[in-house]
Amino acid sequence: MNGGAMFYGAAIALIIGGIMIAATKRNLIKIIIGLNIMETGVNLLLITTGYISGGTAPIMNKTWTKVVDPIPQALVLTAIVIGVAVTAMALSIVVRIYEKNNSLDIRKIKEMRW
Amino acid sequence: MIKKVLIILLFVLLGLSLYSVVKYNTFGEDKTVVARHYIDYGMKETGSQNIVTAVVVLYRGFDTLGEVTVLFLAATALGALLHGLRFKSKEKEPSSLIVSTAARYIFPLIILFGTYVFVHGHLTPGGGFPGGVIIASAFLLLFLAYTQKEVSEKTLSLTEGTAGILYVITGLLGLVMLNSFLANFLPKGIPGKLLSAGIIPLIYILIGFKVGAEMTGVLRNLKEEEK
């Protein structure tokens, strides 16, 4: 198995797994955990697209000519920070929902029926 | 019925988009011209050894300002949502002697490490965002070890606001001096030295303070409040 199949496979497995968790679980905390797993998968996918064979980290303190693509890494840096912010927001909303309904089960929340 | 159709549709779309990503991005290939430019000329143009930092702070500096704004908005919204929350909480147990004693010695070391990470953002892996979060983790240790401990909200907002305003002022100075927002108006220096890369260390120190204060504020708000 070459490196590409491994990294792409792991990223896609994380994305699919995260979506499955978010779509099938009833507990709000578990849904947020699923979204976080999916986010990890997306980040891994982005980083993997930027890999260049034999490249090192893009820090030029030697005369390295082969380094990996720095742009996906910069984008993922942004994505991680936004992910933390979104998770914190989601958790605070969950705290409020729990306070109102005394339950984390989405089946017991009347406003979320459709 | 309609739910199942939607779920199947979602997975088909997801599969298609993932397939196209894998198909058009052969693993390990040199793909974009932009990346080549950053790698070949990045250190010459910005004076920063760490190219990721150069991309985040200078080439895509405006994007980073937006990112910091999103973080600020999320922290503010979290504070607004949790304002005045009261749980019927059980009595809080004080943490054990080992935790509270260790916290007293480890706390300054974590703060020092966080500061190191964001001051050396242009030389080593790391930078303002990880450094700020490391500092917030020191405060988390403090909250865990001393349950009564409070960090004043005023100090946090003041640090956060000052750092944010100084970031924008740095950008505007670039606009005034070099006709471009967030332009590098300070001398670039010798790459590899601590005082190099112009405004990159300056901005990363400000981001470090801002992120540290914001994340500490988030932790402070998420902490169960006293009655």
UniProtKB/TrEMBL annotation, chain B:
Protein name: Cation:proton antiporter
Membrane spanning stretches: 68-85, 97-119, 125-146, 158-182, 194-213
Keyword Lyase in annotation: no
InterPro entries in the cross-refs: CPA3_antiporter_subunitB, MnhB, MrpA_C/MbhE
Domain spans labelled MrpA C-terminal/MbhE: 22-86
Na+/H+ antiporter MnhB subunit-related protein domain: residues covered: 98-216
Primary location class: membrane
Keywords: Cell membrane, Membrane, Transmembrane, Transmembrane helix
Top-level taxon of the source organism: Bacteria
